[in-house]
């Protein structure tokens, strides 16, 4: 059985990498490696996971320099030369070891008005939205986000401007803007049109390149840029921030 | 915690770097361009003397770099406009390749015209 050399970030914002040797197994995922270390080598190691099947978005880490979902990243794909370097997600405060504080990430979803605001009650009939419509198609393209923070962690604009809402929050705003049942569109456009909103995006496409779900937040942000510009031309944009 | 170059090593990021370098390079060149044109204010002889100086092989070679910067910045800018204003999903990388191809073809065309 071969051995995998793993370096893992230990500590908080200040800390260092600690080396571990882990038995290399077939079809091993990066999350399997972290779990082995915690259960067999060092129980004080902190990390976060839940579903293990790419649905919950909680196990994202920096793997050999790139943000990835670890439960669906095979060691064979990333550990070139039998080396694995694991760190917490970049652009977020570090709580301990591999656990990043996701608070700023989700606070920005709220700031981008990422909450559905419907007009119907449970007593009304189902809203029927045809899959053929343009708006439904646009919403569908970005709707599968699992909130893992990989895009946020990969974004240079977030690193440059800590107030920037980031790709995930803006993608969420775009899907809601295209949801014909939602009634908060105007306020949402105003929320994403400020200095820290969609127009701050430099189209580096780090988010689109790294999204484990294959979404294109850059496309959503471009949509928001067009929508906010149009609203401003029509005099319908009231940015309060 | 900050990410390093490994997080940025992909074609779209290289396109951004190229766009930034060509933009800064062209901005730095612009004053020199105006200074050269300004030689005409000193009379015909001054401008002609400068134009003769610019016929040197090394200056001509650097013109190829200038054309490459111009074409790269223009094609890269067109790519960005297409990304921002057109509906897109899957052709983003093809667009990048096309922009790179157009800018290199323009610079090579200029170089060929220079030597043949």
**H and E string of chain B:** HHHHH
Radius of gyration of chain A, in angstroms, nearest whole number? 20 Å
Low-confidence stretches of chain B: none
- What is CATH's topology name of chain B? 3 helical TM bundles of succinate and fumarate reductases
- SSE order of chain A, as H and E? EEHEEHEEEHHHHHHHH
Largest interface: A-B, 34 and 19 residues
By DSSP, the count of extended strands of chain A is 7
> Helical percent range of chain B?
over 70%
User: For the record, what is the CATH homologous superfamily label of the largest domain in chain A?
Assistant: Alpha-helical ferredoxin
Note the total helix count of chain B: 5
Specify the structural class of chain B.
Answer: mainly alpha
- Share of helix of chain A, binned: 25-40%
CATH architecture of the largest domain in chain A: Orthogonal Bundle
CATH class category of the largest domain in chain A: Mainly Alpha
Computed Rg of chain B: 18 Å
How many structural units, i.e. domains of chain A? Answer: 2
Residue ranges of chain A: pLDDT <50 for 5 or more in a row?
A: none
How many separate helices of chain A?
10
The major sheet of chain A is characterized as: 5 strands, mixed
């Amino acid at each position: 059985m071969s051995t995998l050399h793993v370096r893992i970030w230990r500590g908080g914002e200040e800390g260092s990498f600690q080396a571990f040797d882990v038995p290399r197994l077939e079809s091993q995922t990066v999350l399997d490696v972290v779990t082995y270390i915690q259960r067999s080598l060092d129980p004080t190691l902190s990390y976060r996971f839940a579903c293990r099947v790419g649905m919950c978005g909680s196990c994202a880490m920096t793997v050999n320099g790139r943000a990835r979902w670890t439960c669906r990243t095979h060691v064979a794909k990333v550990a070139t030369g039998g080396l694995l370097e694991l760190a917490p997600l970049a652009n977020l405060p570090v709580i301990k070891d591999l656990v990043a504080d996701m608070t700023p990430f989700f606070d920005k979803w709220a700031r981008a008005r990422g909450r559905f605001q419907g007009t119907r009650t449970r007593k009304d009939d189902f809203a029927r939205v045809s899959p053929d419509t343009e708006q439904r198609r646009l919403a569908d393209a970005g709707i599968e986000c699992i909130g893992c923070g990989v895009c946020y962690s990969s974004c240079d604009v977030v690193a440059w401007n800590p107030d920037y809402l980031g790709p995930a929050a803006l993608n969420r705003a775009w899907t809601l803007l295209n949801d014909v049942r939602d009634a908060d569109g105007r306020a949402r456009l105003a929320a994403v049109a400020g200095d820290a909103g969609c127009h701050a995006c430099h189209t580096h496409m780090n988010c689109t390149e790294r999204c484990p779900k294959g979404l294109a937040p850059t496309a959503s942000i471009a949509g928001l840029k067009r929508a906010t510009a149009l609203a401003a031309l029509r005099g319908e944009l009231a940015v309060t921030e | 915690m900050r990410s390093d170059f490994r997080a940025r090593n992909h074609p779209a990021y290289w396109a951004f770097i190229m766009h930034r370098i060509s933009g800064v390079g062209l901005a730095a060149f612009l004053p020199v361009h105006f200074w050269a044109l300004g030689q005409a204010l000193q009379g015909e002889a001054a401008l002609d003397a400068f134009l003769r100086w610019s016929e040197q092989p090394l200056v001509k070679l650097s013109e190829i770099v200038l054309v490459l910067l111009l074409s790269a910045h223009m094609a890269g800018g067109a790519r960005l406009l297409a990304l921002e204003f057109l509906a897109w999903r899957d052709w983003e990388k093809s667009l990048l390749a096309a922009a790179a191809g157009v800018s290199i073809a323009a610079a090579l065309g200029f170089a060929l015209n220079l030597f043949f």
